[in-house]
Write a structure and sequence with these properties.
By secondary structure, chain A is an all-alpha fold. Chain A contains 13 helices and no strands. The model of chain A has no long low-confidence stretch (mean pLDDT 88). Chain B is an all-alpha fold and 104 residues long. Chain B has a domain of 30 residues. Chain B is elongated. Classes of the chains: A mainly alpha (243), B mainly alpha (104).
């Protein structure tokens, strides 16, 4: 079961995990600040980073809730729909890790974009497992520390508009979307969703336009050349040997 | 619904989805069409959030203000491969700067 990685490969995987964790952790500061600007308190902000732990869903949750407490059901729905992809990552990661019991629960909580990406990027399953755990734990620790920093800073700042924090939220969604715009169909779906949401906004309660716009993703179901994300089932060179 | 209830419900659902991926047999979700729709879902949601956060006021009215300029600068930064935190800070700085000059 246990595949031995040579020390050089081990160091290379750990270095990659750490750099991803630091880069991701850095924007936990912006999440913390935006969350308190949206009206959540410090404990609620920290609870999201500890328990919900998925950047895109967390930004969406506080973004929708910023319009007022009436948006809570829509905030939950948006955050949950954005979290669907973590379930798909779980399918791939479960095969790689073969974890059971408490380790499986921990692995599930750490299943996010970054840990999955580093895990599946490794050619050997043993390196994939190390990459998943190191990145997942690294991001979790740094993301929670930087969330706290951002929330404390945000609390001290006062009116969020004066510091352009509302524009920062819009830019954060842009930056989360950017790496996914890799094909014409992705651009078409993004454009359609943006227009639908903005056109509906004056006529529907907060949060609802975003949910209605999500249905444009169904267009991808009939679009034969739409891209895959995550990539179709991934195989590791030593996967069979690792079983 | 209180904010705490919303935080805990959203967190519970997020974890349930993650765990389901680890427990469900992979072949249940193997369909090509399912994969295409589920990979398009975050694209549609994030694009809709960009639109609403950039172009609508808290009452839902469509407005073009400093945020639109800030997001324009953010897109240029992304084209130049700037890292996430730089994009976000730059957008905040542009909006804050324009408001300091008296723009909405």
């Amino acid at each position: 079961m246990t595949q031995v990685l040579d020390p050089a490969r081990r160091r290379a995987v750990l270095r990659q995990s750490l750099s991803v964790a630091v880069a991701t952790g850095a924007y936990g500061v912006s999440f913390g600040a935006l969350s308190v600007a949206a009206g959540l308190d410090l404990l609620q902000t920290q609870a999201l980073s500890l328990l919900l732990f998925s950047g895109g869903s967390q930004f969406a949750f506080v973004g929708v809730l910023a319009a007022g407490p009436a948006g809570a059901p829509a905030a939950i729905a948006t955050s949950t729909l954005l979290g669907v992809r973590n379930g798909l990552y779980g399918l791939q990661v479960a095969r790689l890790l073969g974890a059971r019991g408490p380790r499986q629960v921990a692995a599930a909580q750490l299943t996010i974009d970054e840990s999955t990406a580093v895990g599946v990027a490794q050619p050997e399953a043993a390196a994939g497992r190390l990459g998943f755990w190191a990145t997942g734990i690294g991001v979790f620790v740094l993301w929670n520390l930087t969330t706290l920093l951002g929330a404390l800073a945000g609390d001290a700042m006062g009116d969020p508009r004066r510091y352009g924090l509302d524009a920062a939220a819009a830019a954060a969604f842009c930056a989360l979307l950017w790496p996914r715009l890799r094909s014409a169909d992705a651009f078409a779906i993004a454009g359609a969703a943006l227009v639908v949401a903005v056109v509906l906004a004056p006529h529907a309660p907060a949060g609802v336009p975003v949910l209605v716009a999500a249905t444009t993703s169904l267009a991808a179901g009939v679009w034969r050349r739409a891209h895959h994300d995550p990539a179709p089932p991934h195989h590791w060179v030593d996967e069979e040997a690792a079983r | 619904m209180s904010t705490w209830t919303a935080v805990l419900v959203a967190s519970g659902l997020a974890f349930a989805l993650k765990l389901a991926g680890h427990l469900v047999p992979a072949r249940w979700l193997d369909g090509d069409r399912t994969t295409r729709v589920t990979s398009a879902l975050p694209i549609a949601l994030l694009a809709a959030l960009v639109g609403v956060q950039t172009l609508t006021s808290s009452s839902g009215a469509v407005v073009v203000d400093s945020r639109a300029a800030a997001v324009g600068v953010a897109v240029v930064a992304l084209l130049l491969r700037a890292p996430f935190i730089v994009v976000v800070v730059l957008a905040a700085a542009v909006a804050a700067g324009l408001r300091l000059l008296g723009l909405p």
